[in-house]
Amino acid sequence: MFREFLLMARGALRANKMRSFLTMLGIIVGVSAVVTILSVGQGARNLIMEQFDTVGTASSMIFSRTNIFNSSDAFTEEDLKMLRSRVPNLIRVAPMASDTAQMRTTRGEHTVFLFGIDENYDRITMSETVSGRLFTPRDFDSSMARIVLSADSAARIFNSYNVDGEVVTLIHGGRYLNATVVGVSRSGFQKTMTQAMPEEMLQQAAAIVYIPLNSMRQLLGSEPIIISLALLAEDVSDIDSVNRRSLELLHERHKNADREPYRAMSLTDVMEQANTIINIVTIFIVAVAAISLLVGGIGVMNIMLVSVVERTREIGLRKALGATRRDILNQFIIESVILTTLGGLIGAIVGVVIANVIMYLTGLKPVFTPGSFLLAVGFSVSVGLFFGIRPAMTAASLNPIDALRNE
Amino acid sequence: MMNYPSNTTVSPLVQLTDCVKVYRTGQVHLKALKGVDLTVHRGEMTAIMGPSGSGKSTLMHIVGLLDEMDEGQYILNGREVQSLTDNEQAQARNAEIGFVFQSFNLLQSANLRDNVALPLIYAGVPVAERRKRAEAMLERVGLLPWAEHRPGEISGGQKQRVAIARAMINRPSLLLADEPTGNLDSKSGREIMELFVELNKMGTTVILITHDQEIATYTRRILMIVDGLVVSDSDGVNANVGTDLSAEGTF
Ligand SMILES: Nc1ncnc2c1ncn2[C@@H]1O[C@H](COP(=O)(O)OP(=O)(O)O)[C@@H](O)[C@H]1O
Ligand SMILES: [Mg+2]
Predict the structure, then answer these.
(1) Record: contact A317-B64, CB cut-off 8 A
(2) What is the ipTM of this complex?
(3) Residue spans of chain A under pLDDT 50
(4) Partners of A226 in the beta sheet?
(5) Can you give the residue range of the structural domain that contains B206?
(6) Residues 6+ apart with CB under 8 A from A314
(7) A233, A242 contact by CB (below 8 A)
(8) Residues of B in contact with A317 (CB under 8 A)
(9) Ligand 1: which residue has its CA nearest to atom 27?
(10) How far apart are CA B55 and CA B34, in angstroms?
(11) Which of A112, B21, B70, B160 could in theory staple to A103 by disulfide, Cβ–Cβ 3.0 to 4.6 A?
C-alpha cells in the first residue's frame, strides 16, 4: 500500500512541477542554511584544534593589562629565574620582549614589531619553518644579528617566503643594526596569542620580526622590555595551577597584588573563547534557518490545502471506489512528507556545496558532517508530517458524495 | 469466483425501507426522499425513472453507500448498513458495489489501465495482479489497445466503457449507474446499455437511472419516482401509491 501512495504522490507532484518546486524552496533554503553553517562551524573548530595541536596544549602566556613600558610592572630576568625555581610542573619559561622599529629592506622601509626571544621560545611555541631555518642556539649568542620573519610579514613585504639571506637594516631611536634574515616561520601560538597583545603596538606594525634578545639589546642600546612570558607546563592538567602560582609569585615580587595587572592566558582559554563565538553564531543562524523551515512548512500546508480543494473530486472518487479515511489521510501526508523530504535532501546537498565553496574561499578544510545532514533531513520529514496532517485530515473527512458533486 | 455470501438465495440484495433524506443548506431543509421502499433481488436489472429533481440520484447514492439517509433502514447483502463502521462501509463500497457516473469520473492524470485498476489498490491486490485484471477488464470492454492512453484521448462512449470496467473489476454484486448514457450519443448509449444487459446476464444485479424511455426497455423492471416517492413499480410490489402513471407524461 505504501508503494501505491508513493506513486500517487509522485504523480501529483509531477503534475504540478513548478508549484512543487516553489513549495519546496522554503525548505531548501532552511535546510541548506543549517547544513552550511554546521559544517563551516565544524571546519572553523577544526582549524582551531589544528593550531592547538601544533602548539602543544600545555602552553600559556602571561602578560600585563597595564602599559608595561616605563613601568615597574615590566617583567625582568629575576622574574624568570624565580618562576623557574619556584613554580611546580613548569618546564620552561621564555621571555618575550617587544618594541617597534623601522626596517629598511630592498623593498622599502616598514615599521615592524620586534619580538625579542631567547632559545626557549621555539621549544614552547613549536614554531614551524616555512622557509630557511629557525634560530639555532648559536644565533642567540652571536654578535651578528639574525632575524626570522613571520610568514605573513614576509609575504607582505617581499611577496615571497624565500627571503633567507636578505640583509636588512633595523633602525630604532637613531641606532642602526644590520641583520640577516635566516628564515620564515609560522606559529599557531603567536597567531593565537597576538590576540592578547597590546593593540596599539600591533596596529602600527607592518610585520613581525623575531630577533634574539641579545641582538635586540644591541639595537636598542638598553635592556629590552619583556612584555610577556611564555610558559610550558608539564601537562595540560597542570596549566591552571602553573598559571595561578606564577601570577601569585609575580604579583608578590612586583608588589602590585592590589592592582593585579597580570593575566594568564592559556590556549585552552583562547580555544574556548573562539568556540563560544562559533557556537553563538551557529545557534543564531540555525535559529534563523529554523524560522525559514517553519515558514516553508506553512507554505507546504498552504499548498496542500489548495491541493485538497482542487482534488476534491478525485478524493470523492477514491472514496466511492473504496478508499478509507486512513487511505486518503496517508495519501496526502505522504505527499507532503515527500515534498519536504525532497526539499530537505536538495537543501542538504546545496548546503554541502555552499559549505565547500565557503571553505575553499576561506582556506578552511571542508568538513562533511553526516550528523547535520541527518538532522536537517529528519527535521524536514517532521515538518512535512506536522504541516501535512491538517490538510490530509481535511481531505480524509470529506463525505464521498459531497466531494464527487464538487465541480 | 463471486463474492456472494452463503445466504444468497434467501435474502434480497437491497432492502431499503421507509428511506427519508433531507438536504439541509442553511435555513432551507429540502426533503428529497419522503419514505422510499426499495427491494432488489439478486440478478435483477432495474431502471429508475422520474422527472429531474425527483430524488433518483439521492436514492442511488444511499443505495451505493455514498451518502447517509436521515430515517429508514437499509439492509445490503444481509447487513444492516447503519451498524457498519466507516471502514466497513468503505470496504463494502469497494467489494460489493460498482458505481458508474454520468460524467465518467476518470482520473485525467492516469492511463486507462490504472483507472480501471483503481479499486483494486484499496482491495490490497498486488500490482502485478492489478495490471493483469485491469487488462482483462479492458479487453472485455474492447479497449485493451488503449490501455496506456489517458482519458483525454478517447471518446465519451469509450470513457463510459472504461468506467464500467472499473466498476466491475472487483466483481461487485451490485452495479449502480446514474444516467450512464446521459452524456452519450444514442449509438454509444445503446452499446453501453447492451454492456449492462450482458453483465446482468452474467449474474450482476444492475440498477440504473435513466431519462430515456427507450433505454428503459432494456430492463425488466421499471421504478418510477416523483417528488421523493416511488409512484410506480412495474414489479408491482414496491409502489408507494399504487400504479399512478400520470407522471409519465412529463418525458
Ligand atoms: N447536495 C444537495 N443539497 C441540497 N439539495 C440537493 C442536493 N442534492 C440534491 N438536492 C435536491 O434534492 C432533490 C433531488 O435531487 P436528485 O436526487 O439529484 O434528483 P434527480 O437525480 O432525480 O434529478 C432536488 O430538488 C435537488 O435540488
Ligand atoms: Mg440525478
Answers:
(1) no
(2) 0.89
(3) none
(4) A75, A97
(5) 12-247
(6) B107
(7) yes
(8) 105, 107, 118
(9) B53
(10) 9
(11) A112
Structural domains in chain B (count)? 1
Burial class (CB in 10 A: 0-12, 13-18, 19+), A379: buried
Q: What is the pLDDT of residues A105-139, one digit of tens each?
A: 998 899 898 889 988 887 777 678 888 988 888 88
Residue A399 with chain B: CB contacts under 8 Å: 67
* Whether residues A79 and A193 fall in one domain: yes
User: Do A87 and A215 fall within a single domain?
Assistant: yes
Q: What is the per-residue pLDDT across A133-156, written as a single tens digit (0 to 9) for each?
A: 888 888 888 888 999 998 888 888
The DSSP line for A281-345 is HHHHHHHHHHHHHHHHHHHHHHHHHHHHHHTHHHHHHHHHTT--HHHHHHHHHHHHHHHHHHHHH
* Residue A221 DSSP symbol: T
The predicted pLDDT at position B117 comes to 96
- Using CB atoms, which residue from B87, B94, B105 is nearest to A317? B105
Ligand 1 site, residue B64, Cβ cutoff 6 A: no
Reported pTM: 0.72
Q: The CATH number of the domain where B34 resides is what?
A: 3.40.50.300
pLDDT tens profile B141-171:
999 999 999 999 999 999 999 999 999 999 9
Does the residue A57 lie in any domain? Answer: no
**Which phi-psi region, left, alpha or beta, contains residue B9 (left: φ > 0; alpha: ψ -120 to 50)?**
alpha
Q: Which ligand sits nearest to residue B178's alpha carbon?
A: 2
Amino acid at B160: Q
Joined grid coordinates for residue A188: 599557531
| Domain ranges, residue A348 | 2-51+273-405
Per-residue pLDDT of B205-215, as tens digits, reads 999 998 878 77
